[in-house]
Amino acid sequence: MEIKRFALGLRFKKNAEQQNERTVKNIFEHIFKAVTLSELKGLSLWGGNDPYSDNVYVAVIMGGSLKKMRRIYKNIISDESLLNCLEKDMPIIENNRIAHIEDPVSFGTVGENDSFIVFAE
Predict the structure, then answer these.
(1) What is the pLDDT of residues 102-121, one digit of tens each?
(2) Which SS3 state, helix, strand or coil, does residue 107 take?
């Protein structure tokens, strides 16, 4: 996966049979409760399987400055319900490990008016 600027990867627990569009949508809904679309403005959202674990899906927020990504990181770690959904071992990863995700899926970029590509049902 090609990394643009700084990226955060959130490692969600999953079962092999759980990965479908509905599961991915639920993952991003958890993220949007901790980090608003306004805070994600200009960033792209990606997802993919963790190459080091069969039972982990990685949701990636990418393209921000270091300052912006630190602010997003603080919001994520302060949201208890989101943290409970994440893997206990390395719940959040950064650029070097994210770069190894094979066949990542792009979900789009958050626009200026908080618009976002709608997930397919």
Answers:
(1) 889 888 888 777 565 544 33
(2) strand
